Amino acid sequence: MLGYTLRRVAQMIPVLLGATFIIYALTFLMPGDPISALTGERPLPEATVAQIRQAYHLDDPFLVQYGNYMLGVFQGNFGIDFFGRPVLDLILERLPVTFTLALTAWVLKLIIGLVIGVYGGLRNGRAGDHFALVFTVIFMGVPSFVIALGAQTYFGVHLGWVEPAGIRAGWPMAFILPALVMAFEAAAGLARLTRTSLVDVLRAEYLRTAKAKGLSPRRIIWGHALRNSMIRW
């Protein structure tokens, strides 16, 4: 388990480097000038423009700019925005909201995925299994942004059950809808994995022996089948 965790952490490094490089390159290749976009119809004096370009290394080649950016990131310096605010402070300001949303979605994912997966696994070939299959197909096949936009429009705008945007309502009302959208996509894969593993385990010989010895169905399912199916994850 420790080796697997270390390998996964090590794999994050090239992924993060690749993601930052692609995003930085796309931003660099965008047409227009960032200073002109910032000032709009009120152009700055040439001396001020030159000072800003020097401060943000805008005249340097792309690789030099990217290298300076990554060097600052590894030193904990994410730079400042065009309004003079440290980017790290902006990240830390919004981090509690991000953490709360991610934790809420993770808990909902476990509950929804396990419940639907177990329900489908115990009713293999029946209506419950068909429901689990439809659930996984829909939420694994439809892009999450489509579900998010539809849920936001219907439940937030038309019905008014939740805040369509923002966190003014606080937890849980402001977080429940985006957390559910995030959870459903992840729960679909978890439900399919749980259902498949549980069906395979229920066919095992040792469970037939447990039934023959008179163990209760509840103990067989929750004490043996479900626990051993989770090992296959």
Q: What's the quick description here?
A:
The protein is mostly helical and 233 residues long. It has 10 helices and no strands.
Can you walk through the features of this model?
The chain has 233 residues and is an all-alpha fold. The chain folds into 2 domains: 2-77, no CATH class; 91-231, MetI-like fold. It is built from 10 helices and no strands. Helix 6 (127-141) packs across helix 8. The longest helix has 36 residues, at 87-122. The chain starts with a helix and ends with a helix.
**Regarding CATH, which class of the largest domain?**
Mainly Alpha
How many discrete structural domains? 2
What name is given to the CATH topology of the largest domain?
MetI-like fold
What coarse outline follows from CA principal-axis ratios? elongated
Can you tag this structure with a few keywords?
single chain; 233 residues; mainly alpha; MetI-like fold; 2 domains
